[in-house]
What we know:
The complex is a heterodimer. Chain A has helices at 13-20, 26-62, 82-85, 88-96, 98-103, 107-115, 129-144, 162-173, 209-212, 216-224, 231-235, 242-255, 263-288, 297-303.
Amino acid sequence: MQKVQDEPIPLNAPQCRALCGPDVSDRQRTAWLTALVIAVLWSLAAASALQAQDTPDYFRQNCMNCHTIGGGRLTGPDLKDVTKRKDRTWLANFIANPKAVFDSGDSYAQKIFEESRNVPMPTLPGLTKERLENLLNLIEAESKLEESQFKGLQISNKPFTDADRAFGRAIFLGHSKLDAGGTSCISCHSMYDTPALGGGRLGPDLTNIYERLKGRKSLSAWLMAPGTETMQPIFKSRPMTADEINALAAYFESSAGERPAEAAANRVALLLMGLAGAAALVFGFDAIWKQRFHSVRRRLVDTTPVHKFSQES
Amino acid sequence: MNVRSQVSMVFHLDKCIGCHTCSVACKNIWTDRKGAEYMWFNNVETKPGTGYPTKWEDQEKYKGGWESNGNGKLDIKSTSRTKIIPNIFHNPHMPSMDDYYEPWTYDYQNLFNAPEGSDQPTAEPISMIDGEKIDVQSGPNWDDDLGGSPIYAENDPNLEGLTEQQKLQLSSVERLVFFYLPRICNHCLNPCCVASCPSGALYKRGEDGIVLIDQKKCRAWRSCVAACPYKKTYFNWFTGKSEKCLLCFPRLETGQAPACFHSCVGRIRYLGVLLYDADRIEEIAKLPDDELVEGHRSMILDPFDPEVIANAKRSGISDGVIESAQRSPVYQFVVKWKIALPPHIEYRTLPMLFYVPPMSPVQASKPEDTIHHASEDLFHDIDASRVPMKFFANLFGAGHEGVVRYALRKQKAVRWHRRAETVGDVDRATADRMLHEANCTREEAEEIYKLTSLCTFEDRFVIPPMHREQAIEMMKEPHEHRTETGFGFVGGPQRGL
């Protein structure tokens, strides 16, 4: 018979740790809790600070391609003192939903539309009530300054040179990389003189963009902060430099009056090239694998000449 | 010396009448199942002909067997450690269904169920693969008896090296000739299928050398199908496992000859144990082509040699098996008389099925309207045979005529001898001279005659005691096993792991 053990089996330290996890004292626990609370508070504060910084960035990314503050009109009007021209409620309504205000037959909205070469003001992405207020405050505050940070790119008036145009073309084709690492234009756009495969088809052909955007100033403003859904995320963090914008403007100016590339013709060429490539692959691999296993019996039967069957002895 | 025992076979082609009874016996026992319809573990081919699968002997196409490389290594032609990765989803050099044939049956129900009409109802052929109506294009013996046919006979790979005149001779009406080549798995000493299997599903049974596929280990790689130069492993598309001839080992274990042997009408098949030296396999498989047949023969040990017997006992070969090896008809044909030869030994798998090459009619020509024979002799010179010596050499001598000539000359001498003995139209002196030329004595000629013509079941099939009890002993208590046999079910091959 085995002796019955009535004393509790003493646990040794490793066993204990395995059962309960690392042993923690009360003091340590308090320290952890404090650290956690501090971390949460700090992150909240950081978040609000981030929001404060957020508004100028938002303005730069969403408004500056059409507007300046004290820099004169681009596509849209100069926003200096706009809060004096119109009351805040109207402005808030208009910014929140320009189309609705325009459709309601508002005469001022109509006037802006016409002045802007019939380019409607887009609805801004990610606009909240709070952000709207911040925007109006920002515009108000910046209007009071002598020199607003949103005066816009200072476009030089010196005439474009051949070097500018060549550099612009190189940037467009991706031969010379953008300083901040933005995507080359050709990835999404084409021009009248893009090479055989053509440019990308995601964005429009830019041959006549110089006229479409009414000249150097608004074109440059657009390039400084492109506002479309596709371009914005790319160039938001990788803005082009003034030199690059100048060069591109020079290139676009030179192409004004050319005929845009024939998209349809390029597509046919691409299809034909694709077919030719596929055929080359098929025949190429067939040649490489000439020695591979083919059907034996079927070939034997098919390659035996018919006259053999009627052979006389 | 590492003595092993191997159940070996001799097929006496001079006696084969091409009746396919062996094929049918085998089919009924082993391959009459879904997915196995196209398989013929045993098939009978007409030679010259392309066989089954079509042109299986053309290793330029099928890449079966071993090749001896210059660096003294023996490599599998179809696969290797490096080739298996790029070919992991596609095993090249694999015969397609069309190269075997698409199995079919007939729509017999239509004979009973057809609506009344003005014509007799017919039973149309339907595919056993998809059940659709089929235009039958080929079969497992499609070129049966088609000596001289322009598609099949003329494309026999063994015709390589024959002169144009010889080829023409073989295919000309009134002169053409053919013989039969029954084929089963050769249960090789150096099996390429075993070596190629990535799953290790194939193995050669230690006690009797039968090559088998473990249906539970097989992972459908099909490397064995491509590797076997005789194309005697088949892939079952229904179970997803490969299958092959198992030499009816359940019959052998109960003392019966395999079904194809048992049913053979022409009594062409002989079965018996050979003792061989397993240490020499690699050395022999690397020999140059012209030494292969002799080398292969030299591996087979004399079962009467005391040293061999002692070594055999040391390797665990039982007295019963040694005694059986001493009575083996295969030993007589292959080693003693040297008239049975391995098929295509140039594939270097060292097959353990041997063929006695057949005699063939004398050549004939038809200069005018009558047929003239090249020789008016009753038993003409073997070189005047309609089947050129080179053809036999390609089939049984790795392209070299010497061993084939020896076997045929001896067979011819035995005929002269028996003619002198029984009929008397050949004089004794001539017969003795023939025997002498064929390196044969009267006694040996009598023995050959007896084992060829007057053989009984017991003479032809000397089945060794299989000693299953010893094999069982390794796994469990034999008496316990005895009480359990017959209960429960043996699982058939199934798809999956």
